[in-house]
Structure formats: structure tokens, C-alpha cells
Specification:
Helix content is about 45%, strand content about 15%. By secondary structure, it is of the alpha/beta class.
């Protein structure tokens, strides 16, 4: 059918172009145009062989005795017939209806040009709709997984054991519903996967599509959004109709926040096209008409902006978080991604897993791919540990920029700056072990110091935050101690330190003067993506105390870093000079200049009962000098 539609469309285009060309094409040079005086002269001189009169058009055409063809126009009140009869000219008079002339002019000068424009418009709309869907705006754009496509299974998913278990239950329900129905259990209507970007939400959906032996429809939330009013709601209806026809079936909507955003916040109010689409989605998921055998699976990394009606039980019965993997999860993910790749025997995945705290599954996949690219660049047949460790740093801080020219003076400042970070991190009790120091520019950083934790941690104490601030400010303190001058290199350190100090005072309740409370009420601007703005819910006097507490915390940390560096100034100078010579210190060379690294601060953490906070699991730190 689509083939015949294409043929018809192109047929109309070709015919329209030919007709328009013939209408607008100028007449040939052999036909002469006479005015009335010339026509009368030729008629009276008996030079006209024959002539045809078009009475309704007040026009004549004819042939002279020498064979020359001519056209001429005359006034409507001119008696052309009398002139021709008096001179015995062979005459043929053609009378045409006025309405017939108007119709002919309409088709000639209006219809065919309009037809060409309409055909061009149809072709453009057809291309906008995917090439083969003229005016099919309301049809769903969902795609189905075919049997010929390579399948992803649960074996390809690592680091999400609990989530896989939840999905296995859905698969089992579809395969053997009687087992659950015997206990009165109902199939979940909706499952929402949410978590940080890169944690495997879409991968998990592909695994479900590969495991479940039922029709699987997948679509992006943005596919419901169109420039024409009502199209989104129509596509939602069509999608669920397809799923009901093929029930039991699974629908996967990726990035559902594109259509499921909180209602009542847009500038269009209740008539907003996106809100109409969401209303239709709510009805299809749990409306008046019962929906049997269709499971809606959705993914987002912004669950906070979704409409509450969408999240309630009966629509999304289960909300499953896909978090960043722990140590064992990272090792499992690495095993999945090195599968089928030529990996050298010296590659230890457990070491790589310990070196990548806070990495998501996407980060680890990118790291393995970067290692493979580096190995190919070095003309190696296998991926070894050296390339993979370099790949970790490329993911954290970007590629090296060895060609960047830096003066000896700036190189010396950077060396003392990074050594300050490393020496304070090595000395203080509640900091992570130093992994590497480098003054080779990488990404936007002119130098960097990497500290890596020895374990995954979910709580951070007040003492650890104070030590972290001292480590951040140690670069500026080192510059001031050695050169009696400061530079802009500590810009990023100061920004992070100020943010941590403010959070300690206003969010974590770690100020002795202000006490254990949060300060500043957050306002949600939903229509702008639900950004959070803090409105002060305290007096100007308390605001002044907050500023004073922040300054005091940062000053204490700076003084502590300065105290450590003064006490170990000899070692500071020795390490900085060594760093200027070799540019990078890590592993054995780092331990040689710093001393034996502390293994963990777990014992010291147990001795105290620190104030704690929940923290994002990503704990790798890179101090960048911009």
C-alpha cells in the first residue's frame, strides 16, 4: 500500500510540473503579436489567408499568405466581424461561455499551482513523520523487539542483584500467572526504575525484553510530544491499544519525566499539551476501563519532578532504585564488560574495582573501552593493567595534555600546590589515602592529586569533613608558605570548601553555636525543572552568624593545613622538587617520598561518635587547578 501511495504522489508532482511549465512557457518566436492598426492594415491589403476569432476573449489568431502566424487583441466594442466580411477573409468565429473561461483560468492559474504547493506540503509532513506516515500524527511511535535482534539477558546485568530479583518475579508472573493468582496476587501495573544517570536502567529494560517471552514495546517520553495539539494523548491511546491487542505485553517508556512532569506548573495551565498527554497516560494506567495484562515499565533519573498521581500505587505499584554499585558490584560489572576482550593476565579486576569508588556502570564501561582504545593506540594485542589504570584517570579528569607549555615558575607553583594537598591528606587521620600526584595537565586541571577510599562509605562524620576542608585548602596554604603569595590555582578548591562549610552549618546541623537544625527553606520551581532555591527562614542576625560560622570553619581548616605544612616543610620541599623532576608520583615512588600509607581510618571512626550525614556514594576526589 505504501508503495502505491508513493507512486500516486510522484505522479501528481510530475503532472503538475508539466502543466505549469506549459502554461507559463513563453510562446515561440514564429507567432507574431499584432496591434489593432497592424491587423487592420493586413486585412485591408488582402494579406490575410485565414483568421479565427475568439469572441469571448476579444482576440484573433490567423495566418498571413506568406505563412506567418499571428495573434492580435481588439477592443470588445470593435466590430471585427464587419471588417473581415468586407474584405472577404476566411473567418472562423469561436464563441465560448464566460463561465467556461473562468473555469479554464481557475485551473490554469490557481488550481495547478495550489496543487503543487499541497503536494509539497504533504511530502514535507511525510518526512517529518518518518518517511512513510502521511498525516499519521496520532499513531504511536513505539517499536517492538524482533526475534532477529541480539538479546540482552539478566546475565549481562551486574551490580543490581536486588533489582534483577524484582524483575525476575515479573518475568515469572508472565510465564506462570497461576502460581501467583492462586494466592490472590495481581500482576503489577507499573514499575518505575529511578536512579542516577548511567546506573543501568535502560540496560535492565533491554534485559527484561530479552528474557520475557511476551511482546515488548519501547518508546521515549519525548516521542509523545509533538507540535500539534492532541497528538500526545492520541499516541498514548494508540500505544495502549496495541499493547492490549497483544496482551500480555510490556511497555517501556524511557525518560518518562519528559511527559510525566508535575501538573499545574506550566505556563499553559490545564490546556498545556504536555498535561493533556499526562492525563491520558494516567487514565490508561488506572482509569475507568480496566487494563488487563499490560505492564508499564518506565525509567527516569528525576523522580522528584514526576506528578504524584503518576507515582501512586495502582499506577506505579513498584518503585525500584538503581543505585551506584558497591565494590562487589563494580567487580561484577567489570567482568561483564571484559567478556570477549583480549585481557592480559596481569589485569586484576578487584584492584580496578577498589580504584573506582563512585563509578557508575556507564563509567566502568567507558573505562574498559578507553583501555581498549589505548591498547590499540600502542599497537598491543592485549589490554593490560597499565592501559586500564590510565583509563581510570581519563574518566576522572580527562586526557593528558603533555603538549601544553607551562613556564618553570608556574610548574614550581603547581608542584608545591599539589604536594600540599598530598602531604595534608597523608598526615591527617580522617582523610583517604593518596593514590597519585601529578603536575601533568589533564582535562582542565593543570595538576591533580587523587585520593581514593579503602571502602565504600555512606556516612561522613564532622571530623572527616574538617579534615577534608584542610586537605582542600592545603594547596593555597602551601603557596602562601613557600612563595608568600597566592594564585588563582585554588579557585576550584575554594569553591568546594565554601560549599561544604555552608552545608555543615545550614543543612547538617554541625555548628555548635547555631545548634542541630537546618536553616533556609527550599522552594521548588517546578516549571523550571524543579530547581531548588533557598529562601531564608531566619533573621538577619542569624544570617550574620551563619556567615561567621562558615568563616570560622574555613579559617580553622586553613590554620590546620598551615600547621601541618610548617611542621613538615622539609618533606614538602623534597617532594615538590622530586615531583618537578618526574612529574608524576604513584605506587612505590609515592610511598617512598611520603612514607607508608595508612590503610584505613575505621578504628579511629569507631572510637568516636561523630555527627553524621547521608552522602552520595561517589567519593573519589580530584583536586583540579584551573
Amino acid at each position: 500500500m505504501k508503495k502505491y501511495i508513493n507512486i500516486i504522489v510522484w505522479f501528481f508532482i510530475i503532472v503538475s510540473v508539466i502543466v505549469l511549465f506549459q502554461v507559463l512557457m513563453p510562446r515561440g518566436e514564429e507567432t507574431k503579436q499584432f496591434n489593432l492598426n497592424e491587423l487592420v492594415k493586413h486585412v485591408k491589403s488582402k494579406n490575410v489567408k485565414e483568421i479565427q476569432v475568439y469572441d469571448t476573449e476579444a482576440r484573433v489568431s490567423g495566418t498571413l499568405k506568406d505563412g506567418t502566424e499571428f495573434d492580435a487583441n481588439y477592443p470588445e466594442d470593435y466590430e471585427i466581424s464587419k471588417l473581415l466580411l468586407e474584405n472577404n477573409v476566411k473567418t472562423d468565429i469561436e464563441r465560448q461561455s464566460v463561465w467556461l473561461g473562468l473555469v479554464a483560468n481557475f485551473f490554469t492559474y490557481l488550481f495547478f499551482p495550489m496543487l503543487i504547493l499541497v503536494v509539497i506540503w504533504f511530502v514535507m509532513i511525510r518526512q517529518m513523520q518518518g518517511g512513510n506516515k502521511i498525516m499519521s500524527f496520532g499513531k504511536s511511535k513505539a517499536k517492538t523487539i524482533s526475534k532477529d535482534q541480539p538479546k540482552t539477558t539478566f546475565k549481562d546485568v551486574a551490580g543490581l542483584d536486588e533489582v534483577v530479583e524484582e524483575m525476575q518475579e515479573v518475568k515469572e508472573f508472565l510465564e506462570n500467572p497461576k502460581k501467583f493468582q492462586a494466592l490472590g496476587a495481581k500482576i503489577p501495573k507499573g514499575i518505575l526504575l529511578y536512579g542516577p544517570p548511567g546506573t543501568g536502567k535502560t540496560l535492565l529494560a533491554r534485559a527484561i525484553a530479552g528474557e520475557a517471552n511476551v511482546p515488548f514495546f519501547h518508546i521515549s517520553g519525548s516521542d509523545f510530544v509533538e507540535m500539534f495539539v492532541g497528538v500526545g494523548a492520541s499516541r498514548v491511546r494508540d500505544l495502549f491499544e496495541q499493547a492490549k491487542t497483544n496482551a500480555p505485553a510490556i511497555i517501556f517508556v524511557d525518560e518518562i519525566d519528559a511527559v510525566g512532569r508535575h501538573r499545574g506548573a506550566g505556563l499553559g495551565g490545564g490546556h498545556d499539551e504536555r498535561e493533556q498527554t499526562l492525563n491520558q497516560l494516567l487514565v490508561e494506567m488506572d482509569g475507568f476501563d480496566a487494563r488487563i495484562g499490560v505492564i508499564l515499565l518506565a525509567a527516569t533519573n528525576r523522580p522528584d519532578i514526576l506528578d504524584p498521581a503518576l507515582l501512586r500505587p495502582g499506577r506505579f505499584d513498584r518503585q525500584v532504585i538503581t543505585d551506584k554499585p558497591d565494590l562487589r558490584g563494580r567487580e561484577g560489572i567489570l567482568k561483564v564488560h571484559v567478556r570477549g576482550k583480549p585481557v592480559a593476565k596481569n589485569v586484576d579486576l578487584s584492584v580496578l574495582a577498589r580504584s573506582t569508588p563512585g563509578f557508575t556502570g556507564a563509567d566502568l564501561a567507558n573505562m574498559i573501552n578507553e583501555g581498549a582504545l589505548l591498547a590499540a593506540r600502542h599497537n598491543k594485542k592485549e589490554i593490560d593493567m597499565k592501559e586500564l589504570q590510565e583509563a581510570i584517570e581519563r574518566v576522572i579528569a580527562g586526557p593528558e595534555r603533555r603538549t601544553k607549555l607551562i613556564s618553570d615558575r608556574e610548574k614550581e607553583i603547581i608542584a608545591y600546590h599539589e604536594t600540599g594537598h598530598a602531604l595534608v591528606a597523608f598526615t591527617l587521620p580522617y582523610t583517604d589515602p593518596v593514590h597519585k600526584i601529578s603536575i601533568i595537565p589533564r582535562g582542565q586541571a593543570l595538576g591533580y592529586t587523587i585520593t581514593l577510599p579503602t571502602e565504600d562509605r555512606y556516612l561522613v562524620s564532622k571530623s572527616e569533613l574538617h579534615n577534608k576542608l584542610a586537605q582542600l585548602l592545603a594547596g593555597r596554604a602551601s603557596e602562601k608558605l613557600i612563595f608568600s603569595e597566592v594564585t588563582t590555582g585554588a579557585h576550584n578548591d575554594l569553591e568546594i570548601a565554601t560549599k561544604i562549610a555552608r552545608q555543615m552549618v545550614t543543612e547538617y546541623g554541625m555548628s555548635d553555636r547555631l545548634g542541630p537544625r537546618t536553616l533556609g527553606q527550599k522552594t521548588e520551581q517546578v516549571f523550571l525543572g524543579r530547581d531548588f532555591n533557598a529562601n531564608p527562614d531566619y533573621s538577619d542576625r542569624v544570617a550574620s552568624e551563619i556567615d561567621g560560622e562558615i568563616k570560622q570553619i574555613i579559617d580553622d581548616a586553613y590554620m590546620e593545613a598551615t600547621k601541618v605544612l610548617k611542621r613538615k616543610k622539609t618533606k614538602l620541599e623534597a617532594i615538590a622538587k622530586k615531583l618537578m623532576d618526574v612529574e608524576t608520583l604513584e605506587g612505590g615512588s609515592l610511598e617512598k617520598v611520603l612514607g607508608k600509607q595508612k590503610k584505613a581510618n575505621n578504628d579511629k571512626r569507631k572510637d568516636k561518635k561523630p555527627s553524621v550525614k547521608k552522602e552520595d556514594k561517589k567519593s573519589k576526589e580530584t583536586d583540579k587547578e584551573t
